[in-house]
Write a structure and sequence with these properties.
- The chain is of the alpha/beta class.
- The protein folds into two domains: about 150 residues, D-Maltodextrin-Binding Protein, domain 2, CATH 3.40.190; about 160 residues, Periplasmic binding protein-like II (D-Maltodextrin-Binding Protein, domain 2, 3-Layer(aba) Sandwich), CATH 3.40.190.
- Helices cover about 40% and strands about 20% of the residues.
- Strands 1, 2, 3, 4, 5, 6, 7, 8, 9, 10 and 11 form an eleven-stranded mixed sheet that branches.
- Strand 1, helix 2 and strand 2 form a beta-alpha-beta unit.
- The chain is globular and about 65 Å long.
Length: about 350
Amino acid sequence: MNKKIVSVFLLTAWLLAACSQAATTPSPTSAPTSSEPRTLRVMTHDSFLASEEVIAQFEAENNVKVQFLASGDAGTALNKAILSKDNPLADVFYGVDNTFLSRALHEDIFEPYKSPLLAKIPAEFQLDQQQRALPVDYGDVCLNYDKAYFADKGLAPPENLDDLYRPEYKGLLVVENPATSSPGLAFLLATIDNYGSDGYLIYWQKLVDNDLRVVNDWNAAYYTEFTRSGGTRPIVVSYASSPPAEVVFAEEPMDSPPTAAVTSSESCFRQIEFVGILKGTPNRDLAEKWVDFMLSTAFQEDVPLQMFVFPVNVDAKLPDVFTKFASIPELPAQVTPDEIAANREKWIADWTETVLK
């Protein structure tokens, strides 16, 4: 074989090897890269809170970035979800409670999802049998009082709703307007359960005659009017979980809370908050995972010290400050979501005419 033939042979072999290598070696533009996280949008009310590490756990496990859309109070957020239902702003909506649940279901904004975690949640919290809105947490709206005020005055604190119109409690109560405040509406519902749709206005007139004070929201009631915050009213409509919150946020460590909740029979109204998958989401698989996550013990055990409400999952353990200082009413007031939906606007209008006239 002469040198020319050998050279051609070697060149041909080199070209074949190069072609083979090119066929099996990915080009730089086709090299595999780690998949980018998907985005899950979660619409919430403004009071939603969760630990960064808990959210990060969900994001890491599912290669997702959770984007929270704070949308006002529960009623305002629901209105936004309803108005945008043909082009949803988010994949999931958390924060509708039992005072607005029937409206959400009537507007048909949720897709049904029977989470396997529902097996861990008592039936009393599962108000939608079609599993469109799944319970996440609950809180009891109750009267709270300033212990020191009553001790200093030698006056017994109130034990029930009837006490509030007794002469010795004149000028001591501040409540929130039910037209503008979620706890205000909850307390109104407690009075409707106690005194009936025919008698609740008579009760409220007695409160007005006993120098009732009404403010627009919980912040104004608790942090301006309440004696614990420098106000003049030692009885305020708040939550059964407010006393442990006083301990957690105290500037100086304290052995017991300076406030207490009145939890006698039917004096509190239980608010249950729900999560649902919004119709039209392009991320149904991630939305299901998020709902499961909110019902899991990891999220449920984060709830008490973030939003000062109680978890619904029976396996979730409460923090020590809750087990020591939070009171859970044995018999909260009962008004069904359907009753609320049918009468809410009339009840509020009649209340406004009686109390704010």
